[in-house]
Amino acid sequence: DFKYDPEFELSVKRWVESVLEERMPDGVSLQSCLKDGVTLCKLVNKVKPGTIRRINQSTIAFLQRENLNAYVNACKSFGLHSSSLFDENDLYENKNFNLVLTNLYHLSHHVWPSAPQLTSH
């Protein structure tokens, strides 16, 4: 949907921070902040509390990937179109981080129609 744009990435980061009411570390890429799936799972639980019952707070790759799958499945359950989803490797292995940004853009418009939304450029 979108070409990669560092300003858009920053706006996605700020949007996630505003929804979660917590700051991500400065000087760390958004991809690194999201890679373990914890922040994404928290985001989903902000939309609908209890959607993801167990968030793995682990450095073990398998458990981090489990978080990412739980997030994507939650997005499906919210009704996001398959074209708005990403594969865990798009984020975990940084194969196509732009798809992750696109997903968060669509999530912001799909589940928070009355809340602040991300805008595209």
Description:
With 121 residues, the chain is mainly alpha-helical. Helices cover 55% and strands 0% of the residues. It has 6 helices and no strands. The longest helix has 17 residues. The relative contact order is 0.18.
Concise overview:
This protein is mostly helical and 121 residues long. 55% of the residues lie in helices and 0% in strands. Helix 3 (38-47) runs parallel beside helix 4.
List the main descriptive attributes of the protein structure presented here.
55% helix; globular
Q: What is the 3D shape?
A: globular
- How much of the polypeptide forms β-strand, as a percent range? under 5%
Please state the structural category.
mainly alpha
Q: If you compute it from the alpha carbons, what radius of gyration comes out, rounded to the nearest whole angstrom?
A: 13 Å
The topology string of helices and strands comes to: HHHHHH
Mean pLDDT: 90
Low-confidence stretches: none
Helix content: 55-70%
For the sheet with most strands, the description reads: none
Distance between the termini: 12 Å
User: What is the number of strand segments?
Assistant: 0
User: Based on the structure, what is the oligomeric state of the protein chains?
Assistant: single chain
Topology:
Elements: H1 6-20, H2 30-34, H3 38-47, H4 61-77, H5 88-92, H6 97-111
